[in-house]
Every structure is written in C-alpha cells, then in structure tokens.
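Slide 14.
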Amino acid sequence: MRPELAARLGENVPRYTSYPTAPHFHPGVDAAVQKGWLEALEGGDEISLYLHIPYCDRLCWFCACHTKQTRHYEPVTAFLRSLHAEIVTIAGHVRGKASVRAIHFGGGSPTMLKPEDMVALGTVLRDNFDFLPNTKISVEIDPNDMDDARLDALAEIGMTRASLGVQDFDPKVQKAINREQSFLQTKTVVDGVRSRGVESVNLDLLYGLPHQTRESVCSTLAQALTLEPDRMALFGYAHVPWFKKHQTMIDEAWLPGPTERFAQSQLAARAIVDKGYEAIGLDHFAKPGDALAVAACTGALHRNFQGYTEDRCETLIGLGPSSISRFRQGYAQNMPSTAEYGRMVANGGLAAVRGIAFSDDDRVRGWIIERLMCDFAFSAIDLVERFGEAGQKLLIQVSSIALQDPARLLELQGDSFVVLAKSRPFVRSIAAKFDKYFESGTARHSVAV
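Slide 15: predicted structure.
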C-alpha cells in the first residue's frame, strides 16, 4: 500500500448513512415541522417504515446503537403501548396518500419481544397503514432470543428477510464483547426462518474487534459461508467509548491497529467474493440475482440508516425513540428518551425533537456522497442535469479535488468522476471532502476503514 493511502487508515470520518449527518441536526425541526412534512406527502407516494425497539436483554459491549438493557419485561410492555399510539397517529397523517413498500424492525433487539407482542405489532401496522402487494419486511434477529414460538410469530407478521448478527464465532472474541453465540445457535435460526418460507437471509460480521486476527476472521467467515446466506455485511467495529460508555468495558489494548484492521477487511472481502458473491458498495455482499446485487448493477442502489438497500422510497418514517425519518424536505429525529417519547406520543402527539431541513446545496452534496458510497462514481452530466446551477457550482469543486489530490483517490474518466479500485476502501474519506459541515463540526467519528 502506498504511504499516502496507509496514512488514511486512521482517519475518523462519518459513515454517511445520511447527509447531512446526525450530529448536525438541531431543535428547529420539531413535532410541528414533522407534522407539516407528513401532511405534504402526495397521493400515490410509497414509503418505508423503520421501527426501533430500544431494549435488549443483555448489552453487547461493541454495540453503538441506541438501546438499553432490561431484565424485566414491564418497560417493554409500556414502550409498546407508546409505539402503537405513534403508529396510529402517523398513519392518520398519511393514510390515503401513501402506501408502505418496506418495513424494517431494528434495535436494540426486536426479537426479545414476546411472540404475542410481535404479532400484535404486525397487526396494528396492517390495520393502520395501506400495504402494497409484496411489501418487504426485514427483522434484525439476535439468535440468543429465538425459539419456535418467536420464529412462528415472525412468519405470521410476514417477515421476508431475516438479518442475523454474527459478529465473530471465536469464543475469546465473544467473551471480550459480551456476545456469546455459538455457530449451532446461528445455524438453527437460519434453518428455522428458511423452513418458514423466508426468502432472504443476511448475516452481519465485524472486523477490528478485540482479540481478532486475520486467522480468526477467516475462520468465522468460513463457518458463516456454510450457511449460504443470500447477503452478508462486513462492518468495521466502531470504537466510540466517548459516545457509548459501555464500550469502555473493552480494553483498547485488545483492539487490532489500523493496518491489521485493513488486512482483516480485505482478506475477508476477497474470501466472500471468491465464493461467488457480488461486492456491493463499501461493505455489503450479495449473491448474483439478489435484489441488492441487481440494484448495484443497474445504478439503483441506495444508502440509508440501515446501510445499503434497494429500497427506492424517498420517504422513510422512523417510529420509536431516537428513530430518524427522511422526508423530501429533510430529516426529523424522535426523542431518544423512552420515557419522554412515551409522554410525547400519548394522546395523538408526535415525537420529533431535532432534525435538519435540506438546502439546495445539501441536496447536491447528498446526491454526490450517496453515489460515491454506492457506485464509487458519478456522472458530471447527470449532476448538472439534476441540479442545474447548484450542480454546476459543485462540479467546479469536484474537478478541483480530483486534480489537486496527490493520492488521486478520485479521477475523471470521460464525463464521470470515479473512485479507483485501489482507493475504494477509503471512500468515506473521499465523501468527507464534499461534506461542508465536516471540517467545522465538533462531532467525533469512527475510523474510516
């Protein structure tokens, strides 16, 4: 690796699952603004829903999600009452104007819900929203939660994609991150969802975890590949103890350095591709013919808070505490505190407390960043045709970056600006060059690779 590229391994930059990124949200976008954006939806719109379940029955020390551990189910029951109320309120604003194309259950641990509560949640969604035929329903699964009753409940709500957190199968690594989960547990759940007709299985793996080595990553990967998942995600562990205090339980001396992290990521990615999977964006992989692979091949790949997706809906409505919605006009984030969220959504209220409205400049930069993250390239002609004068203005900056960067991370080829193959692992750093908020912001981020 050339020295100027190696120097970028330790850079701290956003993951760019949104633009502008969440640290730049402000209180000026509140429930009143959210209501206006909901009411501005137009007849015939298609929307996606994200439901955030902010509880886990154990706390994994590597996790950076908004969640809390509970040993008792009563707080979950109270939260579900609030979530049902928010669903009814939101649906009241969009019913007759928008239909649901996709739903994603995330967390936290959605699968810690009791089976009857999962079924009830599916019922309240269908009773209040208009579903399109073949609506896609994805659920994040913790295999430690699962039993036959929960598998049956997920089948009853119409789950079409199961996403299982694996992280690593090495017992030493699992102990260091407080996530003990055997290969057999994982295989049992994969077999269980497939026997119930689920059409797609995704596995999430991590590199850069404490005690991981290239050998242990490859061993985990070899076991995971025997399950023949339809998709895989290979994320770098984001060590952000200033943001998530429980990560202080991980001794930083156990973490691999930047060069080792990079080696783990590249070795694992090659092994997945060698098994016939298509590389999708920065860190996803899919079997040829999978909808994600097709989207990547046809320029229809998108990126949102769940990562890479073929979901083409312009509007994504987040439900639950801390959930983020994306509207045509901007982002709106719900109150993170579960108790305060419950008070806000009671009696027909909305829960947005912060966000950001898009400027014309935000839209152009957001499009450039998304195309870089998804396609590693974008067309100058397309940029100007889409955004006119605002696109032309940014084109000057793009040209300057491409010509002046000594590492040549971005190169002009014909009418397109292209991230060269050797530079693709550093695409987050390239995207940061188009983030007007980045240099002036005070937020701290995870390492780029």
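Speaker note: The mean pLDDT is 93.
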